[in-house]
Write a structure and sequence with these properties.
This is Nuclear pore complex protein. By secondary structure, the chain is of the alpha/beta class. About 45% of the residues lie in helices and about 10% in strands. A hairpin with a 2-residue loop joins strand 2 and strand 3.
Length: about 550
């Protein structure tokens, strides 16, 4: 806990200094300009404050900080603080480039797509102009940044964002309406409080240190702003580009009080094992008594290891196996607290065997001392039908896509591209899928065979949504014709989820058949002869009772 406290103390001290500095230059602007203060120096202060806010968002997942970061960066953009002298001084040019790159990151996370495209276009033009005005060799790294963001946007298309990846109170069930698991199954109800997100694949799509997989999972574990969040009254600065000296009153202007707090998330890019373990240990130390920790790892794996364990996850270059490999036994100390592992890995089955073996050998001692927790796991298939012999698609992992954008993953699986999709058809299919998943969730909650490990987290909206999308992924890949019922192409859930009885309209096969029919893709699946298909595929969401 002291690590978190130390960071918060550091943030508020630095924030206080920059607030005082900003207030001082506002109150004494004319005198400072006469004494030689340049506009780019004002922009530099504003840029530092914007980056400070974004860094605090990454530490806390508090969307208020993210929005405040956007507001400061937008002020820099509209006031063109770095324009004067930009092509006479290479340092000012680099400041403008750095500002654009950071603002792009903020807009990506906020899902402000139009602003992202505008900034990327500015970045391209500016890099070309700087190469002509200065030595071209000084801007090689910026050319790589441009290539990186262009590749990222090519993968994260408008089609992938037809529906918010974040949990939307408009599109997803309100937490207060979620069905309760009977006390006979579990008397404990856990909430997702913290998550560790990490991804590493060779040549994967990323921007800065945010990979496509962690980018999608990051959004999937947050609340979607209601719309009040970006009202003009809260997104404008004063004449001098300031938001005022009172941070508390400013937050009250833009905050959405209807939304609960986001789970905290630690995004780790290619962490060394020691760093990864240290982060897990710190989070487990701070985890509330009603909290569960989610660990998401998307990376390649190995089938053998020098420790004779069944497999490992690799979070670095292949030449760095010792310091960048995570083995099943590395998770053992953290099984003292509720833990959900979401592993997207081409060696997931071997890793599962390793984890179960380690837990079987060691957990009895822990359980006898009343310190152990049963680990919940959602594991990807070892192979993916989307890309032969590989579970990682160039546009991101198919398994992660099913967990974060299931209908888009379904369309990708059957070979539909952006230009093939009719938006109205997609929206109708989305309605059917949403209704069906909610029905599955209700059946799961009242199932007598539901394992308490899942029962205690089914009331958390984020974990519940992941579980139901996992079920959809499993059933889709089970029926997918090219790999029909081949186990290596199926994801794994530990402990196993029950197969509760469903009304014919909402049976797994019927739902998939209905959705496939809407896209004209039934030939891609193998269905039972007696599968039920209603004549009218329109679903009235108001008929669903939870």
């Amino acid at each position: 806990m002291w690590l978190c406290c130390r960071h918060d103390t550091y943030f508020y001290k630095v924030f206080k200094v920059y607030t005082q500095l900003w207030k001082f230059q506002q109150e004494n602007r004319q005198k400072l300009v006469e004494a030689g203060l340049r506009r780019w120096e004002i922009g530099e202060i504003a840029s530092r404050i914007g980056q400070l806010y974004f860094g605090q968002y990454m530490q806390t997942s508090d969307a208020n900080y993210l929005s405040e970061s956007y507001i400061f960066y937008e002020a820099i953009l509209t006031r063109e603080y770095f324009k004067e002298g930009m092509f006479q001084d290479v340092n000012i040019a680099n400041k403008q480039l750095r500002f654009l790159a950071r603002f792009i990151m903020v807009c990506l996370v906020l899902n402000r797509r139009e602003m992202v495209q505008q900034l990327v276009n500015q970045l391209k033009v500016l890099v070309d102009e700087c190469k002509r005005a200065f030595q071209e060799s000084d801007f090689k790294e910026w050319k790589l940044v441009v290539q990186e963001i262009v590749r990222f946007l090519k993968a994260d298309t408008a089609f992938m964002n037809l529906r918010p990846l974040r949990y939307s109170l408009v599109l997803d069930p309100h937490p207060d309406t979620l069905p309760h698991v009977p006390a006979a199954i579990t008397k404990r109800h856990l909430k997702l409080r913290d998550a560790v997100l990490s991804s590493f694949h060779q040549n994967e799509v990323k921007y800065s240190e945010l990979t496509m997989d962690t980018f999608r999972m990051l959004q999937c574990l947050e609340w979607e702003p209601s719309g009040l969040f970006y009202q003009s009254s809260g997104s404008k600065l004063g004449q001098n580009g300031a938001t005022g000296t009172s941070r508390i009153s400013y937050i009250q202007d833009i905050a959405d009080p209807t939304l609960p707090a986001n789970p905290r998330k630690a995004v780790l890019y290619r962490p060394a094992l020691t760093h990864f373990i240290a982060v897990l240990a710190t989070i487990c130390e701070e985890l509330p008594s009603d909290g569960i920790l989610l660990v998401y790892l998307s990376a390649s794996g190995y089938c053998s290891s020098p420790q004779n364990e069944s497999g490992c996850i690799h979070l670095g270059c292949h030449g760095e196996r010792g310091s960048n490999c995570i083995y099943p036994s590395d998770f053992l100390p953290f099984t003292r607290r509720p833990l959900l592992l979401v592993i997207d890995n081409d060696n997931s089955n071997a890793l599962l065997c390793g984890i179960l073996k380690v837990i079987h050998q060691n957990m009895q001692v822990i359980a006898d001392a009343e310190k152990g927790e049963t680990v919940a796991m959602l594991l990807s298939p070892s192979c993916s039908p989307a890309v032969s012999d590989c579970s990682h698609h160039p546009n991101g992992s198919l398994f992660t896509m099913f967990l974060t954008a299931p209908l888009q993953a379904f369309c990708l699986l059957i070979g539909l591209s952006d230009t093939d999709i009719d938006v109205d058809t997609f929206n109708k299919a989305e309605t059917i899928l949403t209704t069906s998943l909610n029905t599955w969730g209700l059946a799961l909650a009242i199932s007598d065979t539901l394992n308490p490990v899942w029962g205690q987290v089914l009331g958390d909206p984020f974990i519940r949504r992941l579980i139901l999308r996992f079920m959809f992924c499993h059933e889709v890949l089970t029926l997918y014709a090219p790999v029909y019922k081949e186990n290596k192409f199926l994801p794994t859930c530990v402990p196993a989820l029950p197969m509760p009885a469903m009304p014919p309209t909402y049976s797994y096969e019927s739902v998939i058949l209905n959705i496939a029919s809407m896209f004209g893709a039934t030939k891609h699946f193998i269905f039972s002869e007696d599968v039920y298909q209603p004549e009218n595929l329109e679903v009235d969401m108001n008929q669903l009772t939870l």
